Known about the structure:
Layout: H1 10-13, H2 40-50, E1 57-60, E2 65-67, H3 68-85, E3 93-97, H4 102-113, E4 117-121, H5 127-137, E5 141-145, H6 149-158, E6 164-168, H7 177-182, E7 198-203, E8 213-217, H8 218-223, H9 228-233, E9 240-243, H10 250-263, E10 266-268, H11 275-285, E11 289-292, H12 294-301, E12 314-317, H13 324-334, E13 339-343, E14 350-353, E15 366-367, E16 372-376, E17 388-394, H14 407-410, E18 411-412, E19 415-424, E20 430-435, E21 439-442, E22 445-448, H15 449-456, E23 462-472, E24 476-485, H16 493-506, E25 515-518, H17 532-541
Parallel strand pairs: 1-10, 3-4, 3-5, 5-6, 9-10, 9-11, 11-12, 12-13, 24-25
Antiparallel strand pairs: 1-2, 7-8, 13-14, 14-15, 16-17, 17-19, 18-19, 19-20, 21-22, 23-24
Amino acid sequence: MLPSGHVDSFARDNLPPADQWPDLVFDRAPGLLYPDRLNAAVEFVDRWVERGHGGRIALKSSESNWSYALLAERIDRIARVLVDDMGFVPGNRVLLRGPNNPMMAACCLAVWKAGGIAVNTMPLLRARELAYIIDKARIRLALCDARFRDDLEAARVQSTVLGRVVPFRAADAAGSLEALMAARPAGFQACDTSADDVALIAFTSGTTGPAKGTMHFHRDLLAICDTTPRHVIMPSVDDVFIGSPPFAFTFGLGVNLLFPLRMGAAAALVEQPSPPNLLAAIAQHRATIMSTAPTAYRAMLDLLPGADIASLRKCVSAGEHLPLATFQAWKKATGISIIDGIGATEMLHIFIAAAGADIRPGSTGKVVPGYEARVVDGNGHEMPPGQIGRLAVRGPTGCRYLADDRQKAYVKDGWNFTGDAYARDADGYFWYAARTDDMIVSAGYNISGPEVENVLLDHPKVKECGVVAAPDDERGAIVKAYVVLRDAADATPATVKELQDFAKREIAPYKYPRAVEFVTSLPRTETGKLQRFKLRQMATQSKPTESKQ
């Protein structure tokens, strides 16, 4: 590895051993070779100011528009506060909490410019989830939208590490990040980071256990912008990007911030991007490129008659498989063919997609230039066209877990195994079959069944439980819990609601079990292991609406 610009070596010390890394391939598309010394924040913002484009709009919101010059100034002031007021040194991790808005974006970029590592978290996460992230990444400092501070303060009590929480967008300006920024001069010399210094730790939702921290370098942030956008989406500097996924999802970080900044375009940031709000924001900001999950496209279809989306010219989907019916209905209603894509937190962003004339409805698409993908059997041998196997990928980005033995399961022989089952046809198109792990993908959210199980087991009425995906016409799949109660007399609709409300308080509300079925026992192996595949079979055979609350 190149000499680091970090003083705090925690991230580099906790990278997986070199022999467990995926092969990183940089020569399969032009523009993926980067200088040894690289700071992503400089490339995303400062370069445009240097080129005389500082007056162009970078970020839009319902409250104001920020030019590239204004964004650069605020990034510098935040970076100065980090270094001068908070004892920050390069390599420190900084937790960022808040919805997509210009200050959240500026904080993330400022952490990179100061040589730090951003750990973006979703506003919906609860204290126990935040405390796990804080302790896993050894985070001592957090910048938090004041409206989302309560759960973070509760996490600080649970955590053994977190020291200071600095609010922004606070009603009481005293002690806020904005007040500290006002006391600092503009201008900040970017940290001399290496291209392979860690810039981002993105946490997965977890599949068979606790969430995994995926570590991505400064060059990785540029690589995702120099592949899918340049070769598939193909935006211009006049485009206005908009979308629903939060920055804490690497899908959202890319389409709602990094892609537009890399192209010198604008990002319209929506704090509460429900389908009605997203449609209203498209009209307000004259957005041209929208990114969201298939569930949102389905939900927006009924709202289109009263919406002004005349400015929209391209749509991107990821986060879950795009059903053919959704693609066809959106195309019929708008005339726009949705660009489908598959990515992974471990890969940072999309690596298979197709746009325009290359779209084959029902298929995810072809390999994005810069990446390689193949479908293999259990022994790693490539499958013939048309046969379903495990998806293996490699390219300029790849999986590097933070101090996690599960690295060996994700990376094998230099390839990243995403946990998806696919078939590849003779023309090179990839066709989705299923997930190969215990991840539940519901309305674009990745939800760990074991995580929900752990929460429900904390409820005094629950003796045992198993959580799997159940088919659902509206959301693709929902979280379904099979519960063994301590007292069978409690098997009532009131207990269903009690368990659901309990889950919503303990973890992000989108993870709660929308269906609960009480059973007398759970299927287990002779050694006592839960047989989730049998629960999945039961859920598939049940009516999609059974036991839903």
